[in-house]
Amino acid sequence: MNHGKMILEACVDSPESAEAAEKGGADRLELCGHLIIGGVTPDEWLYRSVREHCRLPVRVLIRPRFGDFCYTEAEFQMMEHQVAHFKKLGADAVVIGCLRPDGTLDLERMKRLAELAGNMEITLHRAFDVCKDPGEALEQAVMLGIGTVLTSGQENSALKGADCLAELQRQAGDRITLMAGAGVGPASIREIWQKTGLRAYHMSGKKTYDSRMEYRREGVPMGLPGISEFEVWRTDEELIRKTSGILSEIGNN
């Protein structure tokens, strides 16, 4: 049985990672800034550099800061400007999510961002995974015209959330695309597919590279505690290639 086109989206935060994802066989990118803290909105110059180095479609994360998804008015105004700006720059899609304090989707704000996105595709990101009622949020995403929901099934990995993902897939049918993310890679993707039937997957394929710095002054941290300034996270071409190959096998069988 041919299962149709399987989608592999690579989550990247640098031109080097974008190139690796393309060479490895990814179908598209989610572009973020600073994946080491879970990803925030990239700046314009990162976007332009990725476009110069890579021909894949680019979905841009709209997230003004690290942390929860309940935004102040000033933060939301930033998000409005970011959506409009990346639309002008030619992004293929935006990746958004806003919650209310009670754990429900902030429908008013999501609708506003969708209006600003216009004819761009929209992904609802993993704010979905910390909402109170995923079934209700899924119906609301359909109502808003969102094309894709990125989710781990409300667990810390898509494999652990496979039962929830399978149930959500039954609920979604062909109305919206569910994309499994968190812990996706060559070691897990076949089992996730077998348990859920999802046809879209999201991974960063991170590999830690050693800094090129030869002189290293220790004990002067510049960022989050416990994170070395002498390590660089980048997408690994081979991890993408292996995962893409497995998805191709699944799609052709």
UniProtKB/TrEMBL annotation:
<comment type="similarity">
    <text>Belongs to the CutC family.</text>
</comment>
<dbReference type="Pfam" id="PF03932">
    <property type="entry name" value="CutC"/>
</dbReference>
<protein>
    <recommendedName>
        <fullName>PF03932 family protein CutC</fullName>
    </recommendedName>
</protein>
<keyword id="KW-0963">Cytoplasm</keyword>
<dbReference type="GO" id="GO:0005737">
    <property type="term" value="C:cytoplasm"/>
</dbReference>
<dbReference type="InterPro" id="IPR005627">
    <property type="entry name" value="CutC-like"/>
</dbReference>
<dbReference type="GO" id="GO:0005507">
    <property type="term" value="F:copper ion binding"/>
</dbReference>
<dbReference type="InterPro" id="IPR036822">
    <property type="entry name" value="CutC-like_dom_sf"/>
</dbReference>
